[in-house]
C-alpha cells in the first residue's frame, strides 16, 4: 500500500495542520524523509507532537516508521538510471565537472556539523587501540573498504577483509572477540549481513564503527560509534566523496593523535623498496 493510498484511507480523520504536513511530505519527499519530527514541524509551523500524532493517525507506530515508508519509496523509485537522469537535468550549463564540483562542495560543507572532529577522534582511537580490525563493506562501498584496509595496514594495524556475505562472512568473524573493532561502511540502504554482524560484535564484546549516509534513527542497527553524513539528495546520482573524506579524516587523526610510530611507516617504505628491486632483478 503506497503512502498516497494510506493518506486517502484516513482522509476524514485529518485536521488542517495534518493536511499542511501532508502537503510538505508529498511535494518534497526527498527532504521530508530525512527531517526530524521537530524540523518537519518547524517547516509547517506546528509542534513536533503534531507530526507524531499524524504518523499515528495514518497507522504508523510513530514518526520513524512513517520516515521508513517515505525512504523506502524514494529508494525503490531511485534506480541508478533515474538518479543519473535527474542529476543531468540539474546540470544545465553543460560544464559537468564544474557543476558536479559545486554539488560536492555543498555536500562536503555539511560534514563538519554532521560528523564533528570529536567523533572522528573517537573512531581513530578505537582503530589505533584495537587488537584487530575487521573491515566490512558491500556493493559500491567496497571501494572504501579496500582503501581502509590498505591504510590501516600501513599503520601496522592487523586488518581483516569482511567484504563477503553468508557462510564466508560467518567464517571470517569466528575469531572476533573483545578488544577487536568492526569497521563498517553502508551506503543508501542497510547492507546485507550488517545487522547480524553488528549484533555478533556486541555479543563478543568487540566494538563497532559504522560510516553511513543513512539518517540517524532507531531503525539503524546499534554501533558503538555512528558517523552519519548525507551524500546529497537520495534520488540523484551520488559519489563516494563524503564517506571518503570521513575515512581520510580518521586516518589522518590516527597519524596525528594516536600512538603510531613513524618507524612503522619507514619500515613499510623499506619493504616496498626491497620488493620492487626484487621484481626488477
UniProtKB/TrEMBL annotation:
Ranges of residues in domain HTH rpiR-type: 1-77
* Domain SIS per the UniProt entry, residue ranges: 122-261
For this chain's UniProt record, which GO biological process terms are given? carbohydrate derivative metabolic process
* Residue ranges of the TM segments: none
* Alphabetized PROSITE patterns for the sequence: HTH_RPIR, SIS
Domain of life assignment: Bacteria
GO terms for molecular function, please? carbohydrate derivative binding; DNA binding; DNA-binding transcription factor activity
Xref: PANTHER family = GLUCOKINASE, RPIR-FAMILY TRANSCRIPTIONAL REGULATOR
Protein name as annotated: MurR/RpiR family transcriptional regulator
Query: Native species of this protein?
Result: Exilibacterium tricleocarpae
Amino acid at each position: 500500500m503506497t503512502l498516497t493510498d494510506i493518506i486517502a484511507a484516513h482522509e476524514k480523520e485529518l485536521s488542517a495542520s495534518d493536511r499542511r504536513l501532508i502537503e510538505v511530505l508529498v511535494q518534497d519527499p526527498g527532504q521530508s524523509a530525512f527531517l526530524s519530527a521537530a524540523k518537519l514541524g518547524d517547516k509547517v509551523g506546528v509542534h513536533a507532537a503534531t507530526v507524531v500524532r499524524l504518523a499515528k493517525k495514518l497507522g504508523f507506530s510513530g514518526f520513524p516508521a512513517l520516515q521508513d515508508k517515505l525512504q523506502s519509496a524514494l529508494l525503490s523509485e531511485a534506480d541508478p538510471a533515474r538518479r543519473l537522469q535527474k542529476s543531468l537535468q540539474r546540470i544545465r550549463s553543460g560544464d559537468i565537472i564544474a557543476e558536479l564540483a559545486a554539488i560536492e562542495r555543498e555536500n562536503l560543507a555539511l560534514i563538519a556539523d554532521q560528523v564533528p572532529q570529536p567523533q572522528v577522534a573517537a573512531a581513530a582511537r578505537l582503530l589505533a587501540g584495537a587488537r584487530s580490525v575487521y573491515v566490512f563493506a558491500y556493493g559500491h562501498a567496497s571501494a572504501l573498504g579496500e582503501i581502509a584496509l590498505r591504510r590501516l595496514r600501513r599503520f601496522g594495524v592487523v586488518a581483516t577483509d569482511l567484504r563477503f556475505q553468508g557462510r564466508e562472512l560467518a567464517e571470517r568473524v569466528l575469531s572476533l572477540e573483545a578488544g577487536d573493532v568492526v569497521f563498517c561502511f553502508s551506503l543508501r540502504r542497510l547492507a546485507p549481513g550488517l545487522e547480524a554482524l553488528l549484533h555478533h560484535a556486541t555479543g563478543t564484546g568487540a566494538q563497532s564503527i559504522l560510516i553511513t549516509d543513512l539518517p540517524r534513527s532507531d531503525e539503524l542497527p546499534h554501533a558503538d560509534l555512528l558517523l552519519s553524513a548525507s551524500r546529497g539528495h537520495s534520488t540523484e546520482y551520488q559519489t563516494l566523496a563524503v564517506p571518503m573524506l570521513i575515512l581520510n579524516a580518521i586516518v589522518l587523526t590516527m597519524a596525528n593523535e594516536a600512538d603510531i610510530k613513524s618507524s612503522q611507516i619507514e619500515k613499510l617504505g623499506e619493504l616496498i623498496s626491497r620488493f620492487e628491486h626484487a621484481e626488477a632483478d
